[in-house]
Design brief:
Number of domains: 1
Order of helices and strands: HHEEHHHEEEHEHEE
Distance between the termini: 28 Å
Helix content: 25-40%
CATH topology: Aminopeptidase
CATH class: Alpha Beta
CATH superfamily: Gcn5-related N-acetyltransferase (GNAT)
Number of strands: 8
Strand content: 25-35%
Radius of gyration: 16 Å
Structural class: alpha+beta
CATH architecture: 3-Layer(aba) Sandwich
Number of helices: 7
Strand order of the largest sheet: 1-2-3-4-5-6-8-7
Shape: globular
Largest sheet: 8 strands, mixed
Protein backbone atom coordinates (compact mmCIF):
# COMPACT_ATOMS: atom_id res chain seq x y z
CA UNK A 1 0.00 0.00 0.00
CA UNK A 2 1.52 3.34 -1.02
CA UNK A 3 1.84 5.80 1.85
CA UNK A 4 -0.69 3.86 3.87
CA UNK A 5 -1.03 4.54 7.55
CA UNK A 6 -3.73 1.98 8.14
CA UNK A 7 -3.11 -0.76 10.68
CA UNK A 8 -5.42 -3.71 10.86
CA UNK A 9 -6.78 -5.17 14.03
CA UNK A 10 -7.46 -8.90 13.50
CA UNK A 11 -10.08 -9.25 16.24
CA UNK A 12 -11.72 -6.00 15.15
CA UNK A 13 -11.45 -6.28 11.39
CA UNK A 14 -12.23 -9.90 10.62
CA UNK A 15 -15.80 -9.61 11.89
CA UNK A 16 -16.60 -6.10 10.63
CA UNK A 17 -20.00 -7.04 9.23
CA UNK A 18 -21.30 -8.82 12.37
CA UNK A 19 -19.31 -7.12 15.12
CA UNK A 20 -22.03 -4.69 16.15
CA UNK A 21 -24.56 -7.46 16.75
CA UNK A 22 -22.04 -9.71 18.50
CA UNK A 23 -20.84 -6.94 20.77
CA UNK A 24 -24.35 -6.16 21.94
CA UNK A 25 -25.38 -9.80 22.44
CA UNK A 26 -22.22 -11.19 24.03
CA UNK A 27 -20.86 -8.31 26.08
CA UNK A 28 -22.01 -7.50 29.61
CA UNK A 29 -24.52 -4.76 30.13
CA UNK A 30 -22.86 -1.34 30.09
CA UNK A 31 -22.71 0.87 33.13
CA UNK A 32 -24.24 4.03 31.75
CA UNK A 33 -22.78 6.08 34.59
CA UNK A 34 -19.26 5.86 33.16
CA UNK A 35 -17.75 9.27 32.34
CA UNK A 36 -16.57 10.00 28.78
CA UNK A 37 -12.85 9.87 28.10
CA UNK A 38 -11.29 13.35 28.08
CA UNK A 39 -10.13 14.24 24.55
CA UNK A 40 -6.46 13.81 23.72
CA UNK A 41 -4.86 16.86 22.14
CA UNK A 42 -1.68 16.78 20.07
CA UNK A 43 0.02 19.48 18.05
CA UNK A 44 -2.48 19.18 15.20
CA UNK A 45 -5.19 16.80 16.36
CA UNK A 46 -8.05 16.28 18.75
CA UNK A 47 -8.63 12.59 19.48
CA UNK A 48 -11.92 11.87 21.22
CA UNK A 49 -14.56 9.21 21.78
CA UNK A 50 -16.44 8.41 18.61
CA UNK A 51 -20.09 9.48 18.41
CA UNK A 52 -22.97 8.16 16.26
CA UNK A 53 -22.98 11.47 14.40
CA UNK A 54 -19.45 10.70 13.14
CA UNK A 55 -20.64 7.83 10.93
CA UNK A 56 -21.02 9.91 7.79
CA UNK A 57 -17.63 11.58 8.09
CA UNK A 58 -15.91 8.26 8.79
CA UNK A 59 -17.61 6.47 5.91
CA UNK A 60 -16.45 9.29 3.63
CA UNK A 61 -12.82 8.14 4.01
CA UNK A 62 -13.37 4.46 4.89
CA UNK A 63 -15.11 3.77 1.56
CA UNK A 64 -11.97 4.52 -0.47
CA UNK A 65 -9.72 1.60 -1.39
CA UNK A 66 -6.56 3.03 0.26
CA UNK A 67 -8.35 2.62 3.61
CA UNK A 68 -9.47 -1.00 3.32
CA UNK A 69 -6.90 -2.43 0.91
CA UNK A 70 -4.65 -3.70 3.71
CA UNK A 71 -7.48 -4.51 6.13
CA UNK A 72 -8.92 -8.04 6.20
CA UNK A 73 -12.47 -6.76 5.65
CA UNK A 74 -14.91 -6.32 2.85
CA UNK A 75 -15.22 -2.76 1.53
CA UNK A 76 -17.18 -0.84 4.18
CA UNK A 77 -20.70 0.36 3.51
CA UNK A 78 -22.54 3.23 5.16
CA UNK A 79 -24.63 0.69 7.09
CA UNK A 80 -21.65 -1.35 8.32
CA UNK A 81 -19.78 1.75 9.47
CA UNK A 82 -22.82 3.06 11.34
CA UNK A 83 -23.37 -0.32 13.02
CA UNK A 84 -19.73 -0.59 14.00
CA UNK A 85 -19.75 2.91 15.52
CA UNK A 86 -22.95 2.16 17.45
CA UNK A 87 -21.23 -0.88 18.97
CA UNK A 88 -18.15 1.14 19.85
CA UNK A 89 -20.29 3.77 21.55
CA UNK A 90 -21.72 0.98 23.72
CA UNK A 91 -18.15 0.04 24.68
CA UNK A 92 -17.56 3.50 26.11
CA UNK A 93 -19.83 2.82 29.09
CA UNK A 94 -18.61 -0.67 29.95
CA UNK A 95 -16.87 -1.18 33.27
CA UNK A 96 -14.03 -1.85 33.22
CA UNK A 97 -13.53 -0.20 29.87
CA UNK A 98 -11.23 -2.16 27.58
CA UNK A 99 -12.05 -0.74 24.14
CA UNK A 100 -11.23 2.75 22.89
CA UNK A 101 -12.35 3.55 19.35
CA UNK A 102 -11.58 7.23 18.89
CA UNK A 103 -12.32 9.77 16.19
CA UNK A 104 -9.36 11.87 15.02
CA UNK A 105 -10.20 15.46 14.11
CA UNK A 106 -8.08 18.23 12.66
CA UNK A 107 -7.69 20.90 15.33
CA UNK A 108 -8.06 23.75 12.86
CA UNK A 109 -10.98 22.61 10.73
CA UNK A 110 -12.67 20.15 13.05
CA UNK A 111 -12.86 17.68 10.15
CA UNK A 112 -12.58 14.00 11.03
CA UNK A 113 -9.52 12.68 9.22
CA UNK A 114 -8.98 9.28 10.81
CA UNK A 115 -9.37 6.97 13.76
CA UNK A 116 -7.35 5.76 16.72
CA UNK A 117 -7.92 2.42 18.40
CA UNK A 118 -6.69 0.97 21.66
CA UNK A 119 -7.90 -2.38 22.95
CA UNK A 120 -6.82 -3.79 26.29
CA UNK A 121 -6.19 -7.44 25.47
CA UNK A 122 -5.27 -8.53 29.02
CA UNK A 123 -6.19 -6.64 32.16
CA UNK A 124 -4.20 -9.09 34.27
CA UNK A 125 -0.97 -8.65 32.31
CA UNK A 126 -1.67 -5.02 31.30
CA UNK A 127 -1.24 -5.57 27.57
CA UNK A 128 -2.92 -3.56 24.83
CA UNK A 129 -3.11 -3.49 21.05
CA UNK A 130 -3.20 -0.21 19.14
CA UNK A 131 -4.15 0.71 15.60
CA UNK A 132 -4.98 3.75 13.54
CA UNK A 133 -6.00 4.97 10.12
CA UNK A 134 -5.73 8.27 8.27
CA UNK A 135 -7.86 9.55 5.41
CA UNK A 136 -6.17 8.93 2.06
CA UNK A 137 -5.96 12.67 1.34
CA UNK A 138 -4.00 13.32 4.56
CA UNK A 139 -1.38 10.58 4.36
CA UNK A 140 2.30 11.41 4.11
CA UNK A 141 2.01 14.28 6.62
CA UNK A 142 3.13 12.50 9.79
CA UNK A 143 -0.41 12.29 11.14
CA UNK A 144 -0.28 8.52 11.71
CA UNK A 145 2.86 8.93 13.82
CA UNK A 146 1.15 11.70 15.79
CA UNK A 147 -1.84 9.45 16.44
CA UNK A 148 0.39 6.54 17.36
CA UNK A 149 2.31 8.61 19.89
CA UNK A 150 -0.95 9.77 21.45
CA UNK A 151 -2.06 6.15 21.79
CA UNK A 152 1.22 5.16 23.43
CA UNK A 153 0.83 8.09 25.84
CA UNK A 154 -2.71 6.95 26.64
CA UNK A 155 -1.64 3.35 27.16
CA UNK A 156 1.44 3.90 29.30
CA UNK A 157 0.80 7.22 31.01
CA UNK A 158 -2.94 7.04 31.70
CA UNK A 159 -3.94 3.36 31.50
CA UNK A 160 -0.73 2.06 33.12
CA UNK A 161 -0.14 -0.67 30.56
CA UNK A 162 3.01 -2.78 30.65
CA UNK A 163 3.20 -3.76 26.97
CA UNK A 164 1.64 -2.34 23.81
CA UNK A 165 1.74 -4.00 20.40
CA UNK A 166 0.49 -3.38 16.88
CA UNK A 167 0.20 -5.47 13.75
CA UNK A 168 0.07 -4.70 10.05
CA UNK A 169 0.10 -6.61 6.80
CA UNK A 170 3.59 -7.72 5.82
CA UNK A 171 3.52 -5.74 2.56
CA UNK A 172 2.37 -2.55 4.26
CA UNK A 173 5.71 -0.72 4.29
CA UNK A 174 4.26 2.63 5.32
CA UNK A 175 2.70 1.15 8.45
CA UNK A 176 5.91 -0.63 9.34
CA UNK A 177 7.76 2.67 9.02
CA UNK A 178 5.31 4.34 11.40
CA UNK A 179 5.85 1.63 14.02
CA UNK A 180 9.59 2.08 13.67
CA UNK A 181 9.30 5.87 14.06
CA UNK A 182 7.38 5.33 17.27
CA UNK A 183 10.20 3.20 18.63
CA UNK A 184 8.23 -0.05 18.59
CA UNK A 185 10.41 -3.10 18.12
CA UNK A 186 9.64 -5.73 15.51
CA UNK A 187 8.95 -8.97 17.35
CA UNK A 188 7.71 -11.41 14.75
CA UNK A 189 6.42 -12.14 11.30
CA UNK A 190 3.24 -14.17 11.62
CA UNK A 191 3.03 -16.31 8.51
CA UNK A 192 -0.35 -16.47 6.78
CA UNK A 193 -2.26 -15.78 9.99
CA UNK A 194 -5.10 -13.83 8.35
CA UNK A 195 -7.52 -14.96 5.64
CA UNK A 196 -8.74 -11.89 3.78
CA UNK A 197 -10.89 -11.75 0.67
CA UNK A 198 -9.88 -15.26 -0.38
CA UNK A 199 -6.11 -14.94 0.22
CA UNK A 200 -3.83 -15.67 3.16
CA UNK A 201 -1.90 -12.68 4.49
CA UNK A 202 1.16 -12.61 6.72
CA UNK A 203 1.52 -9.99 9.43
CA UNK A 204 4.28 -8.06 11.16
CA UNK A 205 4.01 -7.51 14.90
CA UNK A 206 5.85 -4.75 16.75
CA UNK A 207 5.70 -3.86 20.43
CA UNK A 208 6.93 -1.49 23.11
CA UNK A 209 7.36 -2.06 26.84
CA UNK A 210 6.70 0.46 29.56
CA UNK A 211 10.44 0.52 30.31
CA UNK A 212 11.12 1.56 26.70
CA UNK A 213 8.53 4.31 26.62
CA UNK A 214 9.48 7.94 26.82
CA UNK A 215 7.23 10.96 26.73
CA UNK A 216 7.92 13.12 23.65
Amino acid sequence: MIDSTTFYRPKYAEIWAIEAVAAIILAPEPNNAGPPMPPLETQRLIIRDVQPADAGAMFAYMRHEPYWRDLPIEPPTAASVAAMIDARVQDQAREPRTSYFLAVADQTSGQIIGEAILTIRSTRWRQSEIGWAVSHDRTGQGIATEIGQALLDLAFDKLEQHRVYAQCRLENRASRQVMAKLGMREEAILRENVLARGAWWSSVQCAMLKTEYQLP
